[in-house]
Amino acid sequence: MEQIKTFLLLGSLSVLFVFIGGYLGGEGGMLIALLIAGGMNFYAYYFSDTMILKHYNAQEVDPRDAPMLYRVVERLVERANMPMPKVYIIHDHIPNAFATGRNPEHSAVAITTGLLELLHEEEIEGVMAHELSHVHHRDILIATVAATIAGAVAFIANMLQFGAMFGRNNRNGNPLLMLAMAILLPIAASVIQMSISRSREFMADEGAARLSGHPEWLQSALLKLSNYNSRGEVQGATPENAHMFIVSPFDGKNLSFTNLFRTHPTTEQRIERLEMLKKELGTYEEKHKLYDRHYV
């Protein structure tokens, strides 16, 4: 279901791009915007893992440095029949984990010392299964495509705003209409992009539940992380970097208007979905039979 939703949302984003690009400059305007946004995101797609890990001063570890963490990741990738990613630890008290890399062959998972201190081993396994599911589903590629189109829409919208301010009507364009489009269309593109992100989070949760065989492990981890975030201790969290957190850093805050721009579903929604999976998967042995059949 989430795969279909992602496809439909990407289609909607593409239609929005075609509409605004065609209105402003026909195929030429669309092509210029797409090339600029595509070039920026091409660089991000291939080098974002290095940049992100360097930004957080992440340290690569091996079985001697972090035996429990490495054991958990090894167990999961063996079960998923995936290549072993590089494993990193970030010395930060804020509990968090993320995956990066353009494909399973070039991937890494990172976890903070704060998360290692907050969670038990089973909960860490649930979190790592979630991050490996992102790698398995190639979510970084999906996010890059969505960001490319949304960036192109924003670029064209800026051109629309410029044209409206200086009275440069495109074809039979109305300056007021152009200005309204310049303001509203990038917002619409951002809403669609964030909806795609939320769909991929649901998919990663489901993949983690099937991979670990224990949805309750991820449920417990999500609840602890949400409780931590609700205390307002996540320093440095912004809407721009919210996607780097396993749980929205704004959980527990009164941000009803910005719910449309959430990179993650609410923790309540995620726990509810996982509860449904617990009933579906049944016993431990049945869970892994279903995982082998539907996930690998």
Question: How would you summarize the topology of this molecule?
Answer:
Layout lengths: L1 H54 L3 E2 L6 H14 L5 E5 L6 E7 L2 E7 H6 L2 H16 L2 H27 L9 H38 L2 H16 L36 H15 L2 H11 L2
Parallel strand pairs: 2-4
Antiparallel strand pairs: 1-2, 3-4
Give a description of the structure:
There is one protein chain. The chain is an alpha+beta fold and 296 residues long. 67% of the residues lie in helices and 7% in strands. The protein is built from nine helices and four strands; from the N terminus they run H-E-H-E-E-E-H-H-H-H-H-H-H. The chain has helices at residues 2-55, 67-80, 113-118, 121-136, 139-165, 175-212, 215-230, 267-281, 284-294; strands at 59-60, 86-90, 97-103, 106-112. Strands 1-2-4-3 form a four-stranded mixed β-sheet, sandwiched between helices. A hairpin with a 2-residue loop joins strand 3 and strand 4. The longest helix is centred in the N-terminal third of the chain and has 54 residues, at 2-55. The chain is elongated, with a radius of gyration of 21 Å. The model has no long low-confidence stretch (mean pLDDT 79).
